[in-house]
Amino acid sequence: MKVTTASALAVRIAEAACVTDAFTLADGQVLDSYFDEYRLAADPQLLHDVADAMAALVPEDAKVLAGIELGGVPLVIALSAATGLPAAFLRRLPKRYGSKRQIEGTSIEGRRVVLVDDVVRSGGQLAGMARILRKAGAEVTDALCVLERPLGGRLLLEEQKMTLRSLLTESDLASPAEARS
Q1: 3-state class of 149 per DSSP?
Q2: In which pathway is this protein known to take part (predicted)?
Q3: According to the annotation, is 28 in a ligand binding site?
Q4: Is 123 annotated as a binding residue?
Q5: pTM value?
Q6: Residue 124 among known ligand-binding residues
Q7: Is 49 part of any known ligand binding site?
Q8: Is the residue at 181 inside a domain?
């Protein structure tokens, strides 16, 4: 199915990946619904269509897309394929064996890197990953996400001199039944 409108894509995402159930965040806060990025990533056509839509959000001077484990990895692979930009993959912690790297994939040193993740809530994870990339020599001024939840992430990223570009906000993902009516 080819997506023709943003609202049609929002409905498909809501149907596939929005779950009404208790979800506990890392800080202990409990939400009554959540975005299941694995359901989105498991649907190849939906993942392709989301990447195509997100491609328009990538700044023109971007040189590398960096996906944060685990939710950002399938997105960054699909977005890399849609844009032709190389990808890097970020672990929350350095690998404890083998290469012992925290940043995998293409070189980021001296390049403009755009962070990619599934959902932005508080923004803490993106801000932390931006610090790691900057320490490794990357220029990081932008982050992309599929869904932005209104829990302070945009403000935190602005304080870190980063622009958040979200495909959808929580209000765009009305329940599938509401979106069809």
Answers
A1: coil
A2: Pyrimidine metabolism; UMP biosynthesis via de novo pathway; UMP from orotate: step 1/2
A3: no
A4: yes
A5: 0.88
A6: yes
A7: no
A8: no
DSSP structural state of residue 88: E
Q: Where are the alpha helices (H) located in the chain, listed in sequence order?
A: 6-17, 37-41, 44-55, 72-83, 124-135, 153-159, 176-180
How many domains does the chain divide into? 1
* Assigned domain for 147 exists: yes
Residue with tokens 């993942």, as numbered in its chain: 47
pLDDT at 174: 62
Range of the domain at 166: 6-175
Residue 149 known to bind ligand: yes
Q: Annotation-wise, does 180 bind a ligand? A: no
32 annotated as belonging to a binding site for a ligand: no
Give every residue of the chain whose pLDDT is below 70, as ranges: 1-4, 174-181
Tokens of 78: 């699909």
Quote the pLDDT of residue 151.
Answer: 81
125 is known to lie in a ligand binding site: yes
Residue 126 is part of a domain; what is its CATH number? Answer: 3.40.50.2020
The reply to whether 131 falls in a domain is: yes
Condensed to tens digits (0 to 9), the pLDDT of residues 87-129 reads 999 998 888 888 889 999 999 999 999 999 999 988 999 999 9
